[in-house]
Design goal:
The protein is α+β, with helices and mostly antiparallel strands. The chain is built from ten helices and 18 strands. The protein has two domains: about 180 residues, Barwin-like endoglucanases (Beta Barrel); about 160 residues, Barwin-like endoglucanases (Ribosomal Protein L25, Chain P), CATH 2.40.240.50. A hairpin with a 5-residue loop joins strand 7 and strand 8. It is globular and about 60 Å long.
């Protein structure tokens, strides 16, 4: 870790980030920081101060009350996610046959014979084994167990909703059922855009989401074989309150929430980005995680719902710089613990 000077951001970004930080604070004070950089004791004064920040005072709060820190040496890489809306039904209907599953009761954390602990299930012999893959689930291994609570019209659209982790299901009567991430089968996430790129068969327009969707739907199998190369599978729950909910179990905020790797970034911490997509520049708050979001400087920016969010998030692949805003004294404490922190200030 390296200390850095505070960077510029707009007052609008500061106000949005302050609102998101306030929402995060109750959870921030309850959780153990998986990164090991901070503790709830470190955050308590900042959370107390955040409540009392007056109107127009957000900019000064973030500039003066935090330690701005660069973690690692790699450049930042930021993608985008959004809340998609797809067509669906609560019951199977003609044209609405793709099941949306809630979490199965046999999906647990257990230790396999190789000593690895993670998501899995007990097989007929009582051994902990990996959970079913996407192809196995699509082929019906969970069918008839009462886990289906809705049905999508288009398997490709549902696949991309899984990638986003949450979304909206527009029902036949015009109402909306909101889907929230509940669990994952424990299998590795394989990015289909990367597969297409490696095989030299990217659709016209490159690896942006719209082009990939169009290419998949043009294939004889509707993209099914490509989707099945990603063994990861997401289980959902119906959301009835505000949301969608992030990893902190608080509602995520468009243009304020960023997903990060909790092994490097304390969830609830503000994050500053300066990347080659100016829409993503400025202050964010780490309120979420993602299966593909790994590493100290890997972030996924949340844009909300609607056409603009879909367009921006679907094409977001930005490189640049990221800084964390942490409680004062974090670098000194890391130095004392031998975590490789440097008290050198970078401009």
């Amino acid at each position: 870790m390296t200390l850095a000077q505070p960077r510029p951001f707009t007052s609008e970004q500061a106000e949005r980030a302050l609102a998101a930080f306030r929402i995060s604070c109750p959870r921030l004070l309850q959780r153990q920081d998986a990164s090991g950089l901070t503790s709830s004791v470190n955050w308590q004064p900042l959370c107390t101060e955040a409540v009392a920040v007056p109107a127009g005072g957000a900019t000064a709060f973030f500039q003066s009350r935090f330690e701005w820190v660069k973690v690692g040496t790699d450049p930042a890489f930021a993608t985008g996610y959004y809340e998609p809306e797809i067509l669906g039904s609560r019951t199977p209907q003609p044209g609405y046959a793709v099941p949306i599953y809630r979490t199965p009761s046999d999906l647990i954390r257990c230790t396999r014979a190789d000593g690895q602990t993670g998501r899995g299930r007990y097989d007929a012999t009582g051994q902990c084994v990996l959970y079913f893959t996407r192809p196995e689930i699509e082929d019906g291994v969970l069918a008839g167990k009462g886990l289906e609570f809705a049905f999508a019209a288009d398997p490709v659209e549902l696949f991309f909703l899984e990638i986003q982790g949450s979304g909206r299901l527009k029902l036949l009567d015009g109402t909306v059922l909101r889907l929230g991430y509940d669990n994952q089968n424990g299998r590795e996430y394989v990015a289909i855009g990367r597969l297409l790129r490696e095989r030299g068969i990217l659709p016209p327009g490159g690896a942006n989401m719209a082009a990939i969707k169009a290419w998949m739907k043009s294939q004889p199998d509707g993209g099914r074989s490509l989707m099945r190369e990603n063994p990861s599978f997401i289980f959902f729950r119906e959301l009835t309150g505000p949301g969608p909910l992030g990893a902190l179990n608080v509602p995520v905020t468009p243009r304020s929430t960023v997903a990060a790797d909790p092994l490097f970034v304390p969830l609830g911490a503000p994050v500053w980005l300066d990347v080659d997509r100016p829409e993503a520049d400025g202050l964010w708050v780490a309120q979420d995680t993602g299966g593909a979001i790994k590493g100290a400087n890997r972030f996924d920016t949340f844009w909300g719902a609607g056409d603009y969010a879909t367009q921006v998030a679907g094409g977001m692949a930005a490189k640049g710089e990221a800084l964390l805003l942490l409680p004062r004294g974090t670098v000194a404490q890391a130095q004392a613990r031998g975590q490789g922190a440097r008290a050198v200030v970078i401009n």
